[in-house]
Predict the structure.
Amino acid sequence: MKKKDIILIIGILAAALVLFVIYQFLLPGDSEAKLQITVEGEVYGTYDLNQNQVIKINDTNVCSIENGIVSMSEASCPDHLCMNQKKIDSRGGTIVCLPNRVVLGIVSEAKSGPDIDAISQ
């Protein structure tokens, strides 16, 4: 590798690190974001992230909201992978318990009126 190649790689890595830090620590999350729980594709419930609570999902899972951070605290599945997934907050994310078909996701409140993506003639 040439010296210019190494400088280019270091520059790209530095830019990626700066963007990561900005996203993780400096950008605020959506203040209107909610936790939406779906079970087998059907909406089980929508919950406010600003209210600390423990939510029992049928007889299979338990999730908790603490200080706007959502985590899966209990699960009846054999592998417990959902309990080891990254916690989610108002910036987005998803926690999935595949054996129990439970999905925790962050959704934003619907704005009034449709979002227009493009206009065609």
